[in-house]
Amino acid sequence: MANGTVYQSIEDCLATNTALYKFYAAVMIVIFILALPLNASVLHLFIFKLKFWKSNTNNVFLFNLVLADILLLFCLPIKAYNFIHGERRSDNDKVCKAMLFMLFLNRGASIAFLAVTSIDRYFNVVHPGRKNLLRALKKSPQISILIWLLLLPLTIPTMLKNFDCCNSHSQNPDESKQDALVKDVVDSLREVVFFTQILIPFIILVYCTVHIVNRLRKKTVGDRTKLKRAVFLVTSVMVVFSVCFLPCTIARMILLIARVQEWRESFQDKAAVAFDGLMVLSYMDCLLDPLVYCFCSTKFKGLYLSTYFPFLLKGDQVPTESSMGNSTLPPRNNVI
What are phi and psi of 49, to 5 degrees? Predict the structure, then answer.
C-alpha cells in the first residue's frame, strides 16, 4: 500500500494494521473482564457496607474515583468492536461523540479525584495539624459534585469532529484561510484540554508524593515495617499514573509535532498507531486504581474478603463496617 493511501486511511479513521488493532481490542476486552467485577464489587462495598456519604474521610473521593473508572469501562467494548472491524472509531457520528464524551469526562474525573486524593493525603501526612479548605469541604459531597460539573465544559472541545482520530492540525488544501484559522484555534483548545488534564495532575502528584515520602522517612516513631509500606504505597500511585498516562501524552505530543512540521506521512501513520496503542494502555488505570487506593488498607482488604471470599480469611478477625471509617486513608497521626 502506498504511503499516501496509508496516510489517508489514518485521516479517515481506518486502521492501517488490522492485526495490531485486533490485538489492541483483545487487550481492552481483557481489561474490561478483569476490571468491571473488581470496580463493581468495590463500589458495592462503598455504598452498602461503608456508607461513604456518612464518612468524614476521603471515602467520598475514592467512591467517585471508582465510579469514574467503572463508567469509563463501559466504553471499552465499543472501542474494541470498532478496532476489530478495522475502524479507529465508530463511523456513526452520534455514537462517536457520545463515546468521546464518556471517555474524556470519566477519564478526566478519574484523574481529578486521583489528584484530590493525593492532595488530601499530603495534608494528612505532611501538615497534620494545619487547617485547609479541602479538609473542610471533603466532609460534604459538594466538592465532588463541583469537580464533575467543572469537567463538563472541559469535555465539550474533545467532542468536536476528528479529535478521536488524532487529526488535529491536519492540512486540508481545500479549506479557506478563515476556516483553517478557526480549525487551528479549536484544535489548539482541545489539545490544551488533553495535555493539562494529565500534566497538571501529574505535577501535583509528584509534588505530594515527594513530600509525603520525605516526611515518612524522617519519622522516628512507629513501626518501621508500616513506614516502609506507606512509602511503597504512595510511590506506587505515582508509578501507576506515570505508566498509564505519560506514554500516551508523549506519543500525542510527537504526533502533533509531526503534523505541524509536516513530517513524512509514513511516520505520521506510525505515530498515530502508537498513540492508539498507548491510549489502550491508559485504560489499565481502571484496573489498577482499586488495587492501589482501596486494597492498600488491611481493614478494607479484610472487609472485601469477608464479603466476597470469606473462605480465604482462615479464622482471622473479620472487620466490621463501623471500623472502616478511616479504612482508605491514614488517620491524621498515623502513617497507614
Answer: -105, -50
Q: 239, 243, 250: which is closest to 194 by C-alpha?
A: 250
Q: Is residue 297 part of a domain?
A: yes
Give the Cα separation of 281 and 279 in Å (integer).
Answer: 5
Whole-structure pTM value: 0.84
Number of domains composing the chain:
1
* Residue 219 dihedral angles phi and psi, to the nearest 5°: -65, 135
Question: What's the grid cell of residue 11?
Answer: 485521516
Distance in angstroms (rounded) separating the CA atoms of residues 15 and 6: 9
Residues in Cβ contact with 8 at an 8 Å cutoff, skipping those fewer than 6 apart: none
- Does a structural domain hold residue 37? yes
CATH number of the domain to which 24 belongs: 1.20.1070.10
3-class secondary-structure state, position 182? helix
Rounded CA gap, 111 and 240, in Å?
12
Q: Cell 471533603 maps to which residue?
A: 138
What pLDDT digit, counting tens, does each position of 155-176 carry?
876 666 555 565 655 555 555 6
How do residues 252-287 score in pLDDT, each as one tens digit?
999 888 888 878 888 888 888 999 999 999 999 999
